[in-house]
Write a structure and sequence with these properties.
about 140 residues; alpha+beta; single chain
Length: about 140
């Protein structure tokens, strides 16, 4: 069972667009595969995003980008594909190599091209919620707002 979010003050926080169905599915995937409960989750539209991220990172995330905030890594903020790769590396030891890929700028730039392609089309492909979706009961304890 995952530890409650309050007991993980240095846990990485995955910030995402809460009104985006694709983003919500991606976060649900991360939560299901994060067996040790090492990640926390928050909407980019919420209070935790305003408290932990610079305003430009919050507005940057509104374009469909996932933002990962890592307090234990000196407050590192990762965007787009680097954020996804690092979040996956935190979620499971079998995906630790993905964290290494996130540190390779040329690979990340190439992946960001694909990421941007999907992000631009996500609303047309998956629709949009009027408000931020509520987290599933199975990982609500790790959800910050």
């Amino acid at each position: 069972m995952a530890a409650p979010a309050a007991s993980l003050p240095d846990a990485p926080i995955v910030f995402f667009d809460g009104a985006c169905p694709l983003c919500n599915r991606s976060v649900a995937f991360l939560a299901r595969h994060d067996a040790h409960g090492s990640l926390r989750f928050a909407h980019l539209q919420g209070n935790h995003a305003r408290a932990n991220l610079a305003p430009d990172a919050v507005s940057f995330g509104q374009d469909g980008s996932v933002v990962l905030f890592e307090p234990a890594a000196g407050g590192r903020v990762s965007l787009r594909s680097a954020a996804v790769l690092r979040a996956l590396a935190h979620a499971s030891p079998r995906w630790r190599l993905l964290g290494w890929i996130a540190d390779r700028p040329l690979l990340v730039r190439a992946l960001d091209v694909l990421y941007a392609f999907v992000a631009r089309r996500r609303d047309a492909w998956f629709g949009r919620h009027d408000t931020c979706a509520l987290p599933d009961a199975s990982f609500r304890a790790r959800f910050l707002d």
